[in-house]
Amino acid sequence: MNNQTNPYSVSSHGAAVTGERAAQVLKNTYMLLGLSLIVATGASWFAMASNIGFVNVWLTLGVYFGLLFATNMLRNSAWGILAVFGLTGWLGFTTGPIINMYAQMPGGMETVTMALGGTAGIFVAMSAIALVTKKDFSFMTNFIMVGILVAFVAAIANIFFAIPALALAISAAFVLLSSMLILWQTSAIIHGGETNYIMATVTLFVSLYNLFMSLLHLLTALGGDD
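^ Carrier/transport protein, sequence as received from the core. Prediction below:
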């Protein structure tokens, strides 16, 4: 008789533990993401109600990356949650004046509502694909990261060149890349590739932010108001 330990029983136990851990990370991520959206919405509403002017783009980026760095450093402590709220609140606050600008255009509020609906719809669809199929989308990592880097550099360059066609192409790229990033991040959580819910929340929130802003720009342009 073979008295060796059955490797499949060990693997099965490990898979069960990994599954439980992944489920907890996913639950914590969605809870923190929901709270972050509330914080961002409140900050945006405050900026809109107070008629805050546009925040300088370099200040916006500087504070954003500073808070992103702080969140990464504090990701394993309770302070990391406060850093997430600081990051999402800042993005919400700086978005308020932009939404005010779009809202003042003909049919602007309808466009904002459509962008919000589109963002929610894409998030639900991409999350559902990852959760239902349980497919590992880690193979998309390099494409997404390189694509985001190229799109970000192009966006920075277009601040100086201000080419409308390039701006539309960048927005379209961010819609695609942000959608893929939601799919990729959700897959990483359920497969144990991402075990830190704070960083997972930041990734999903930034994806939603970029998705919303890009859809808002594209829908406005298609409506002939950009």
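The radius of gyration is 20 Å.
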